[in-house]
Q: What sequence folds into this?
């Protein structure tokens, strides 16, 4: 039997490897290298430019944490913009809220969406199902530059790292436009890298310093994402008026009656309680 | 230059690898295979039977979380028993509390202690320095079986996995004896494995079902330990009367004036807020 391993270098001298049962698909889109794999422990997974994006085993962690945190702070959110998130998991989770009226999803690479529809229906299942969702295959930075003022209540930035196609989503220009297109009650959640390995911690600090210069409220929360470098991953929570802890609406969220495998309203509080070295690193950013 | 990598199989089909600058030491003790390595990202690290124990980069996380959680719940703890912990990091942290009167440390394998003193002074620094500490090179299970009633306020089980020398530390016999030798105010902290990979989750559940059958209060808390399988690791908190959240003594702990890089009293609360799938897995254990 063939002995095939996928390996990601988490640092130059640190590697994470998964034995591959089948290399299902490989192609170079205009934006990036896209690969789909089949494995035992993680089920199907896909990578962009060789970096792990989504596995069947733990995508629920990432998608729970990007969507339910803001929905529990402002349960009245109705108009949502997703930037990136081509696998569809973020859209799937947010569309579970029946009162959401409109979701615009802006993914730069149509091939990611089409391939996830083919190979990862677990995450992509809602992408051609729900009439509230509109897909735009465009650059996210350009999209927010051209969008009208105050037309969204929530922006979810489900992006790759700030190298390659995701780069523009870590700029002042992008964050300022997010602020402009968000309503007064608006919340921005962004992929915030990781505090552990130096190269990721550097990007975490850069992102945080820009977001806290843009939004009156800018916090960071953590979760366990075992297939990402170090397994210690962060999202940013920024808003014009809502504090993610003081304004948490526990009962309102529980009344939605959503079953979640990672998120719960106690964990919501806990996720914002950061280790001292992470807090200090963000304060000095 | 030689291309040398240390690899741990986190599952049969999942590997974590670190590039090794130098294989400093390798020996087979009467109990296990012991190896010390030098690396760039993690500094020095050592393994037992090929499994990662301690790295210079992130040992502070593990040692903060095993010691400061119980000390912040009962700041009057004076008599401590450490089972395992041959690297010395747990002893080092607990001995930072000046009011601690006595620490007995029971490590089955003297070679681990001697080699850590030679290669890992960062963790082993207090093992021959502090007169309050007594080292016993014995089996931890046998030690608690023979110890007198109610002579400790805190037991810290800093053990390997429940295979090999650590096996006896995951039994009813051990937990019952821990309960017996603990004072009425006593707390037991134990290495509680991980919820993510199935084989570790299985051991997590086995340990929890025994501990909750033994102690009136039995909770579990989590932390980010990137060099352990999945990076999502747990300790158990068991006691006769203290609840780790309701009885947290924030101010008393802060008055100790200890500088910690991972632990803080907010994180203390957050660490007990578990993901839904972990909570359910423990409830059904």
A:
């Amino acid at each position: 039997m063939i002995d095939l391993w996928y390996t990601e270098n988490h640092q130059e001298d640190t590697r994470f490897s998964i034995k591959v049962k089948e290399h299902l698909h490989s192609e170079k889109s205009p934006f990036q290298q896209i690969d789909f794999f089949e494995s035992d422990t993680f089920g199907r997974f896909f990578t962009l430019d060789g970096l792990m994006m989504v596995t069947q085993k733990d995508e629920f962690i990432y998608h729970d944490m990007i969507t339910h945190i803001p929905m529990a702070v402002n349960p009245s959110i109705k108009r949502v913009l997703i930037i990136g998130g081509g696998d569809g998991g973020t859209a799937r989770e947010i569309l579970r809220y029946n009162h959401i009226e409109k979701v615009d999803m802006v993914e730069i690479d149509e091939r990611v969406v089409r391939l996830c529809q083919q190979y990862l229906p677990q995450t992509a299942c809602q992408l051609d199902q729900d009439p509230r969702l509109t897909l735009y295959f465009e650059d996210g930075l350009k999209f927010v530059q051209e969008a009208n003022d105050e037309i969204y209540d929530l922006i979810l930035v489900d992006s790759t790292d700030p190298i390659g196609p995701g780069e523009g989503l870590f700029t002042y220009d992008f964050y300022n436009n997010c602020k402009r297109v968000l309503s007064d009650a608006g919340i921005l959640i962004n992929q915030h890298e990781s505090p552990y390995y130096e190269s990721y911690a550097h990007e975490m600090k850069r992102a945080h310093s820009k977001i806290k210069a843009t939004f009156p409220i800018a916090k960071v929360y953590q979760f366990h994402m075992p297939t990402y470098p170090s397994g210690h991953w962060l999202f940013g929570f920024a808003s014009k008026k809502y504090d993610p802890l003081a304004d948490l609406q526990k009962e309102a969220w529980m009344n939605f009656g959503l079953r979640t495998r990672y998120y719960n309203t106690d964990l919501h509080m806990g996720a914002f309680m950061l280790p001292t070295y992470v807090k200090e690193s963000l304060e000095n950013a």
